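Task: sequence in, structure out. Protein: Integral membrane protein.
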Amino acid sequence: MNSLQNKKIKQLVVLAFFCAIIILQNIIPFLGYIPLGPLNLTLIHITVIVAAFVLGPLAGAIIGGAWGLITFIRAFVWPTSPLATIVFVNPFVAILPRIMIGVVSGWIFSWLKNCSLKPLAAMMISAIMGSLTNTLLVLGQIYLFYRNQSQILYQINTQALLPYLLTVIGTNGIPEAVAAAIIAPAVSLALLKNRHNQINN
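Result:
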């Protein structure tokens, strides 16, 4: 087995490892979601961001897509919140934002590294952008697709829906982004250092 094949196998193993973590975070309460009323404080995006940092944007997109697919399926069989049964049955809301976490965070990280920014700073900025991508795409699409049903979904009128979603960005989106900026770089740097040591040994 040549070194290229060996590298590909290792990458597939690590990719499978991240997929397993995503599955566990969706199954075990409070490991991936912290319920807060009709929405949830999400932690799973951190795993997607770490995958994007360690394996690249494509792998991040795959891991994000796996999370999105699970979100979509769970909306039918085991929803995480009452709102999930309505909005996450839409694949654009359930899957697309999760994929874009990996794409955005991984691409920005690669770009910032090429700009000679230190890895820690590059990861922190990229993690924030990836996290906010998820928040803005999910809530933006909820507003786009469901604003005419806001009285049913949120018990608020259409005019009050946008301020409500902006409040959610502040109460959920910002803490999620801060958590990602702290946790994702710490985990990613440790994984990258370990992989570097294995290559050199």
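The beta strands are 33-36, 39-42.
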